[in-house]
Amino acid sequence: MRWPQKPxxxxxxxxxxxxxxxxxxxxxxxxxxxxxxxxxQERRYRAQGESGNLFELLLSExxxxxxxxxxxxxxxxxxxxxxxxxxxxxxxALKAAAIYGCTICGVAKPETIDHHAPKTIFPLLALTPLNxxxxxxxxxxxxxxxxxxxxxxxxxHPYFDDxxxxxxxxxxxxxVNEGAVAEFSVCPPKDWPKLKAQRLAHHxxxxxxxxxxxxxxxxxxxxxxxxxxxxxxxxxxxALRLVLVDDAESIAAVDPNDWETxxxxxxxxxxxxxxxxxxxx
Length: 281
Known about the structure:
Blueprint: H1 11-25, H2 28-50, H3 54-61, H4 71-83, H5 88-96, E1 112-115, E2 132-135, H6 137-143, E3 169-176, E4 179-186, H7 194-206, H8 209-235, H9 237-252, H10 259-268, H11 271-274
Antiparallel strand pairs: 1-2, 3-4
């Protein structure tokens, strides 16, 4: 999956956009007083994210921020002013940056914003753009509001984590009665650190990506089986294999770990499909 660039919007810009609403609530002066602290949090977040130590930073503040006396105000500013008020343009700009889709599944449209560090636990990051990542509704809800202290369960961060250009998403085609299903799995490159591989496995299973990709593959197979059947009937299995590989390589050039990349390569390796299996669907 491909992720958007880091946002250039700052927490100071977010607060400024929310000021009319804050003023109506009588919170504008309090927020201006807290702004230097929020900017400091933003600087530390960026620095630790870029150095690969963001999890350690969040772990050090876990349990502390949630006791902030203005926690509810900060969360309300996000919910009422950024999402539902004068800051909406900035909220929409953050979503629009995800041109490759949801940053968690890479399939659905990013209709919401997810707090990488949950706002109920880290309210001082509730308005920090670097902590706001575009996601689809189901992925956002599925991720939940908890924070695991296990580093192997740390969610990937689309602004800081690099999943490389090597393939790690694969699929197998399994014929079933009157059809076929694609079974997806992840296999991290051998040179990946153990912890990164564990995080990939957790990302895949906890977000139920295998099931999501399987449904997408079934839907797309129904759409392309007629085209593939014609290629098979006119030119044979080897010609069909070459078409599938060419289609897979075209998508892989954009994203080697798109679900469709793995699926098309799997079709190209499936003897059942290459020898007319699509006609059984």
